[in-house]
């Protein structure tokens, strides 16, 4: 209360009340003897009152100047609702998914059961996605005012109900009210990706059998239990490795290695030496094919138990991990806290609201426009990418992620993951504001058809879109010296980022599509997440460093494949390399020496006329630019208006061609390949690729082998990026992204007459008013930007919202769909 009084008094002070204070004479009359003391007290009071007054005045003047909430842009709107008529590249809507399912349930020949009844021996809908319409028809719609191509779904049906089980793919349309399904494409059943019914059945069988015959070995060796009584010492078979028939030598087989792991945060860096190979070829007859334990191989559990009891191998004796904040495999903050007092990091805000628009899945930004979608089978895609109204790329899409390991033990040795086995698009989930994406991001959802759910599975935050000030100049120049014309000009590289992050069990892959204001498009793939490790027998030392007493971090190769359908000034393009070639020129004219030569470089332009020539294997000794253009579109100086493809994230795939699982990723043989675009070569990989090395369902090599003519054809650039990863201590607990970003760029190359970012109002120009004298001051050009815009960013409710809907970040426990590799 006292505090309040004191605060009230100075408030009067401020209003001028103190000058007429009547309390002073009264005090003088009544307490004459204490005059001095009182005077002193009063002085103190006055001083304090003034001090408080100043504080309050300050506060009040601050309040007067307090900025408002940052305004919304009057021009740029964000409307994520699907438009009434869905455009060609829009993912299937929830309603379309529903209509396709109902249509298929009515097809008696397919005998499809609903998700509640799916089992290994039933026919059911695994997933579906937009069937990309024919390009020519779509261009007629986009460019020539023709009618929109029909929308269709591509549906994946697993037929476990037939005498020879198979995977069937159907095209169903037209949406939203389908009336036809085209003849099925049939794929081998043993190549199918991971499915709930299989994994649930396999793991249940495995755990029951082991509990029955070997629970003693498990508990004595690892201090834990598989199920039932376990509480703080649970073990499970969580990780797995598909073993394709080229590895087992058994044509038509389907086998998987399962890793026993403790159920702790996180299993892939807590390796145990207990691995089981299951034969899953026949759906009614799953069995243990092999066991690998204590560095030895056993045919079955009986042999394992017999040899364990007879002491014929050195028994493993491990403690169950002691779970604490300090446990190396956990992601608790630990070590000395820094900064030593909590200080928030810098944040970005949007003082004039959004500078990009979104309508449905169509995005516009600073002259850029494109559509974005999430294909469940292959991940993020951009369509019809234009700058200043002119199409540059028709399709820019992730094709595949692969990671090939090497090890001594069989489960990690054969871990040649081709990740669409786990549905790349479905695993793009749960972006977290303030960590994965800046707080001012817009989140885009995705709706997927998944085997275990009748209703579409909605991922709230599959993409984030944000404008980002990179803090790096896009350009700058200063001339200041001597008598030169003095001027400074520069601008920040402010970009739009479209981001998604796919979590494939232990690894997390960040994909960024970055739109720069100078017409450059950047694509970035970055790895983070947990490494996969092996129990550290001495034989593992060839394959990685020992990171803990019993943990080897195995060497592996991350690979990413992208499709870039180039449409530079139309579809008919040329692919030209500009080689940087050494040349010794005659120098006798400029030198007094005889036969003087001068060594320099010249450019040699080479048009790649056939697919066999258009394969780029990076060669340090012959540097070159890679350009794409339409031969009819040139500058006034007859230079082709091209875009340059610049790949920065290359790596060499070293596994012997044609061996093991290599044929499944023949796209990784070259850092770049350019092919003639074909409707029947839509993707370089497939959801079957993890198993299909014996006979790849999609064999990218065949795209090249027909050696098509490329000149003035519609061309696709297939970009492979990769990184060899030899894990090190600092990969614990989780691999940091720094240094692991792989990029490629599409850069305008004689495409414009000058840098198109010269039009950007984000620039700053400073010059003296008088070139002859600085004393007259400066002209500063901000092009309408406020010099010092101040407003309150909108309050984020992200963490509150998350708390209210935990399922928007995590799977429900025991959800069958959450079994993964
Ligand atoms: C599928 O297998 C179960 C037992 O595992 C059996 O009860 C059922 O009849 C089988 N269904 C079909 C369609 O064969
Ligand atoms: C586009 O086509 C529609 C109907 O086919 C026609 O009415 C319209 O005039 C056309 N617009 C242009 C710009 O050609
Ligand atoms: C590593 O494994 C050996 C052999 O099984 C065991 O004796 C040792 O305790 C293990 N070390 C740790 C840290 O678990
Ligand atoms: C270039 O122009 C000629 C003449 O108009 C035309 O026949 C040809 O198809 C054009 N080529 C390309 C690649 O656009
Ligand atoms: Cu890695």
Automatic annotation (TrEMBL):
PTM remark: Topaquinone (TPQ) is generated by copper-dependent autoxidation of a specific tyrosyl residue.
Keyword Cell division: no
Top-level taxonomic group: Eukaryota
Single GO molecular function: copper ion binding
Residues annotated with 2',4',5'-topaquinone modification: 507
Annotated keywords: Copper, Membrane, Metal-binding, Oxidoreductase, TPQ, Transmembrane, Transmembrane helix
Transmembrane segments: 36-57
Gene3D superfamilies per the UniProt record, alphabetical: 3.10.450.40, Copper amine oxidase, catalytic domain
Family to which this protein belongs: Belongs to the copper/topaquinone oxidase family.
Entry protein name: Amine oxidase
């Amino acid at each position: 209360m006292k505090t309040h009084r004191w605060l009230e008094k100075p408030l009067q002070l401020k209003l001028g009340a103190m000058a007429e204070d009547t309390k002073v004479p009264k005090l003088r009359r009544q307490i004459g003897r204490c005059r001095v003391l009182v005077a002193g007290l009063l002085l103190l009071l006055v001083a304090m009152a003034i001090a408080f007054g100043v504080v309050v005045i300050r506060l009040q003047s601050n309040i007067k100047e307090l900025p408002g909430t940052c305004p919304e842009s009057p021009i740029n709107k964000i409307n994520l609702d699907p438009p009434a008529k869905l455009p060609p590249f829009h993912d299937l809507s929830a309603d379309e998914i529903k209509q396709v399912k109902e249509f298929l349930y009515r097809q008696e020949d397919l005998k499809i059961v609903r998700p509640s009844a799916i089992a290994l021996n039933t026919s059911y809908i695994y997933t579906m996605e937009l069937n990309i319409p024919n390009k020519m028809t779509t261009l007629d719609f986009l460019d020539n005012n023709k009618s929109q191509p029909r929308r269709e779904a591509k549906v994946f049906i697993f037929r476990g109900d037939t005498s020879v089980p198979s995977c069937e793919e159907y095209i169903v349309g037209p949406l939203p009210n389908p009336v036809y399904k085209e003849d099925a494409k049939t794929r081998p059943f043993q190549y199918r990706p991971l499915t709930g019914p299989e994994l649930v059945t396999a793991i249940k069988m495995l755990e029951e059998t082991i509990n029955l015959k070997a629970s003693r070995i498990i508990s004595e060796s690892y201090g834990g239990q598989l199920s039932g009584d376990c509480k703080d010492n649970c073990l499970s078979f969580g990780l797995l490795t598909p073993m394709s028939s080229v590895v087992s030598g058994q044509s038509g087989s389907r086998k998987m290695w399962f890793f026993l792991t403790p159920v702790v945060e996180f299993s892939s860096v807590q390796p145990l030496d207990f691995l089981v190979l299951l034969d899953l070829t026949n759906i009614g007859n799953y069995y243990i094919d092999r066991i690998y334990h204590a560095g030895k191989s056993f045919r079955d559990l009986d042999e394992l138990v017999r040899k364990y009891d007879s002491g014929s191998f050195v028994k493993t004796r491990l403690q169950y991990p002691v779970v604490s904040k300090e446990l190396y495999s956990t992601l608790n903050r630990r070590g000395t806290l820094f900064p030593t007092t909590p200080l928030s990091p810098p944040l970005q805000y949007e003082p004039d609201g959004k500078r990009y628009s979104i309508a449905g899945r169509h995005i516009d930004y600073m002259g850029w426009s494109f559509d974005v979608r999430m294909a469940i089978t292959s991940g993020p895609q951009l369509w019809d990418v234009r700058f200043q109204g002119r199409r540059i790329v028709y399709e820019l899409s992730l094709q595949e992620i692969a990671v090939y390991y090497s090890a001594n033990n069989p489960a990690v040795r054969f871990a040649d993951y081709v990740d669409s086995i786990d549905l790349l698009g479905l695993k793009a989930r749960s972006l977290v504001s303030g960590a994965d994406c800046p707080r001012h991001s817009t989140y885009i959802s995705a709706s997927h058809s998944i085997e275990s759910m009748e209703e579409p599975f909605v991922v709230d935050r599959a993409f984030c879109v944000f404008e980002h000030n990179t803090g790096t100049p896009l350009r700058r120049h200063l001339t200041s010296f001597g008598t030169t014309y003095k001027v400074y000009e520069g601008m920040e590289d402010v970009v739009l980022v479209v981001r998604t992050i796919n979590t494939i069990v232990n690894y997390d892959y960040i994909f960024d599509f970055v739109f720069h204001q100078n017409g450059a498009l950047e694509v970035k793939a970055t790895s983070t997440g947990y490494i996969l490790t092996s129990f550290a027998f001495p034989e593992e030392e060839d394959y990685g460093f020992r990171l803990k007493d019993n943990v080897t971090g195995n060497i592996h190769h991350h690979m990413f494949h992208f499709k870039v359908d180039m449409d530079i000034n139309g579809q008919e393009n040329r692919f030209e390399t500009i080689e940087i070639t050494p040349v010794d020129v005659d120098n006798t004219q400029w030198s007094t020496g005889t036969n003087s030569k001068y060594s320099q470089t010249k450019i040699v332009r080479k048009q790649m006329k056939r697919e066999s020539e258009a394969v780029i294997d990076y060669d340090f000794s012959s540097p070159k630019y890679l350009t794409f253009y339409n031969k009819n579109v040139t500058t006034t100086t007859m230079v082709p208006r091209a875009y340059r493809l610049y790949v920065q994230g290359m790596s060499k795939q070293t596994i012997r061609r044609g061996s093991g699982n290599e044929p499944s990723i023949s796209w990784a043989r070259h850092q770049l390949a350019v092919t003639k675009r074909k409707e029947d070569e839509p993707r370089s990989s497939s959801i079957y690729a993890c198993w299909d090395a014996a006979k790849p369902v999609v064999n990218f090599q065949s795209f090249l082998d027909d050696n098509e003519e490329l000149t003035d054809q519609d061309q696709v650039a297939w970009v492979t990026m990769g990184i060899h990863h030899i894990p090190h201590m600092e990969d614990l607990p989780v691999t940091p992204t720094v240094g692991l970003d792989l990029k490629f760029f599409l850069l305008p190359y004689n495409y414009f007459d000058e840098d198109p970012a010269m039009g950007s109002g984000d620039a700053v120009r400073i010059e003296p008013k008088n070139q002859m004298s600085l004393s007259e001051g400066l002209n500063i050009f901000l092009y309408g930007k406020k010099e010092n815009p101040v407003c309150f960013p909108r309050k984020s409710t992200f963490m509150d919202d998350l708390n209210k809907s935990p399922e928007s970040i995590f799977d429900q426990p025991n959800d069958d769909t959450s079994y993964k590799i």
